[in-house]
């Protein structure tokens, strides 16, 4: 990661590392080190602000809590107001809401005496071309759309170097404010709120727009009983090419409400992603929380895994009064496959019309109805406090800023939760033979070969024995060195979508040309489409010189077709007895093709000088969604 403006010579953290920092998902020393770096690096500070800005601004006073954010004991972002009291014809009053990209103020047109809302880009971001371009795009998008259920822009401009957007001032409360004040809503009212929101999204869709950040805090109910869709800052044009403002691997949205495909294909999602988010919002209105609520320092990665693989909780478990038609609609809105969802928001609105019969939205906004309660509803418990060195940046929006940080990650193993994505395998000691299992996840692996990009990340949770690796390019992570020729390796592997190779390398050594050679066994898909097939592949690998740096070269030795992955972790086991690999098993099933005579001859050709398969071993991964864990290893 590089910046045009920074004041330190040490390398800047990658966007993924900054994202993990935002979510407090790094060990304390790394949290403190990155915090110290960001406090001196204006480029990283701007990047952090952009990540915060990926979550929309929430109105203060309707359930959001304004506080001074702190990422670590070394750094607290400066949130002091640094904009003039008047911008052009608009006199600014009190702030209505804050986010990383800027602040929304209550304001008044000095000549017309008309109250308005003015969104102001944070002055610290004026040197950030991408932030300015994104803000200017929001001006164009909001200004070009007219619909009764969409917030209306009335003006935009720049004054004294400050960029601002003027919008209608809505007297009302956000859906999140309603939930904080009232808890779960009656079925007709919840359906009517979402029906009107769907009409607003349909209007945006007919103007060629996809919102990409639908959630309760981006939907407002006015005092007149009309729903308004807020914040088109992340919207993109339907059918447009790759978004130049969204980098490859960057994730845009809010974790608790993002569609499965949005985690990996932000630049290519269509209106059905908004329908999924709207389904999550409907679930929240009916139950008090999103289908997959997030809390805890590791929830960002856990949420991604849940949205992509876990079935959503049945609405009838929480709301037995939900009619069958509503159950069916929500089931389709929350489908993992976009093809299984309603095609347009208009279809959703039509199906909700009958379910919303008798709704009284005016009663939701009567005096005192949305005042913050003295006791937080049980389903809306506040997130737990963390030690000072693990405090995340507390956002007014109450969600993780890492969503916009470019974390195209998968889970190696989802931390313990009610609906686990992977079933933890039982790894037992071999009852025969002088082997002893040893846990390797006691320290972060060393980087034997690592080509960091903005989305690259290595994170070890020693308490939960979870190693998370995000590596768009091939990576070798060293776990140790075998000095004895007889050993066993057992490794548990998992990916959310199995988009790339993952496995183990072993017997690594430097040859006469000072090139690092190794054996590799990895699991990968070898055919795309509905009949996708998988193989366990054995290869010879080497780290060789490439202009201008180093790269990995591989030569195939043998392959064995194996079943596709299920929702459990996959177990790879291999037993080494010189002069060859004696046994390879995948989920307990032997793979004889990998240890055949022809494979042995091929090994002899590719490894003419290697002594008895001893040497370095570790994890191999290669994918934009690559994650692996090594749980334990036995050595004699």
TrEMBL record:
One of its GO terms (molecular function) is protein serine/threonine kinase activity. The keyword Repeat does not apply. Pfam families: Pkinase. It comes from the Bacteria. ATP binds at residue 119. Keywords: ATP-binding, Kinase, Nucleotide-binding, Transferase. CDD domains: STKc_PknB_like (cd14014). Residues 90-353 form the Protein kinase domain. This is Protein kinase domain-containing protein. The lineage of its organism: Bacteria, Pseudomonadati, Planctomycetota, Planctomycetia, Gemmatales.
């Amino acid at each position: 990661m590089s910046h045009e403006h920074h004041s330190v010579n040490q390398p800047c953290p990658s966007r993924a590392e900054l994202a993990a920092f935002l979510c407090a998902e790094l060990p304390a020393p790394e949290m403190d080190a990155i915090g110290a770096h960001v406090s001196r690096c204006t480029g990283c500070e701007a990047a952090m602000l952009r990540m915060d800005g990926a979550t929309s601004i929430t109105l203060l006073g309707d359930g959001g809590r304004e506080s001074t954010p702190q990422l670590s004991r070394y750094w607290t972002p400066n949130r002091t107001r640094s904009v003039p009291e008047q911008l052009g014809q608009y006199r600014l009053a009190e702030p209505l809401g804050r986010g990383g990209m800027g602040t929304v103020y209550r304001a008044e047109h000095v000549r017309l005496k008309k109250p308005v809302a003015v969104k102001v880009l944070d002055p610290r971001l004026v040197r950030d071309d991408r932030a300015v371009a994104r803000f200017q795009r929001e001006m164009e998008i909001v200004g070009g759309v007219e619909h009764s259920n969409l917030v209306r822009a009335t003006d935009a401009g720049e004054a004294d170097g400050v960029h601002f957007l003027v919008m209608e001032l809505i007297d009302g409360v956000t859906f999140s404010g309603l939930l904080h004040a009232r808890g779960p809503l009656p079925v007709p009212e919840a359906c009517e709120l979402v029906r009107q929101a769907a009409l607003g999204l349909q209007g945006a869709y007919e103007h060629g727009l996809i919102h990409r950040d639908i959630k309760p805090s981006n939907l407002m109910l006015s005092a007149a009983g009309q729903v308004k869709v807020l914040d088109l800052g992340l919207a993109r044009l339907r059918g447009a090419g790759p978004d130049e403002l969204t980098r490859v691997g960057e994730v845009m949205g809010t974790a608790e409400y993002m569609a499965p495909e949005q985690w990996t294909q932000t630049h290519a999602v269509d209106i059905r992603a908004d329908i999924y988010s709207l389904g999550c919002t409907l679930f929240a209105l009916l139950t008090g929380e999103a289908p997959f609520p997030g809390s805890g320092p590791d929830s960002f990665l856990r949420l991604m895994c849940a949205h992509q693989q876990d079935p959503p909780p049945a609405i009838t478990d929480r709301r037995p009064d939900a009619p069958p038609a509503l159950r069916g609609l929500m089931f389709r809105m929350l489908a993992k496959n976009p093809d299984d969802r309603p095609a347009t928001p208009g279809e959703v609105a039509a199906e909700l019309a009958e379910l919303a019969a008798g709704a009284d939205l005016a009663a939701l906004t009567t005096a005192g109805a949305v005042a913050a309660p003295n006791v937080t509803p049980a389903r809306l418990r506040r997130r737990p406090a963390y030690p000072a060195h693990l405090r995340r940046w507390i956002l007014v929006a109450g969600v993780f800023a890492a969503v916009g940080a470019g974390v195209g990650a998968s889970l190696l193993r989802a931390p313990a939760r009610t609906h686990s994505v992977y079933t933890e395998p039982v790894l037992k000691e071999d009852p025969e033979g002088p082997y002893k299992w040893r846990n390797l996840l006691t320290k972060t692996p060393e980087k034997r070969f690592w080509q960091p990009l903005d989305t690259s990340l290595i994170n070890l949770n020693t308490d939960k024995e979870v190693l998370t690796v995000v590596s768009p390019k091939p990576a070798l992570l060293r776990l140790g060195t075998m000095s004895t020729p007889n050993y066993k390796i057992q490794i548990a592997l998992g990916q959310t979508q199995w988009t790339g190779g993952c496995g183990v390398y072993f017997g690594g050594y430097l040859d006469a040309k000072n090139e690092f050679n190794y054996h590799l066994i990895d699991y990968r898909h070898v055919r795309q489409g509905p009949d996708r097939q998988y193989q366990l592949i054995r290869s010879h690998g080497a780290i060789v010189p490439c202009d201008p740096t180093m790269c990995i070269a591989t030569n195939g030795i043998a392959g064995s077709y194996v079943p596709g992955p299920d929702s459990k972790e996959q177990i790879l086991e291999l037993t080494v007895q010189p002069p060859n690999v004696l046994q390879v098993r995948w989920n307990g099933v032997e793979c004889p093709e990998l240890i055949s005579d022809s494979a042995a001859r091929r090994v002899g050709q590719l490894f003419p000088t290697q002594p008895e398969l001893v040497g370095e071993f570790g994890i191999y991964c290669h994918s934009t969604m690559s994650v692996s864990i090594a749980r334990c290893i036995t050595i004699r």
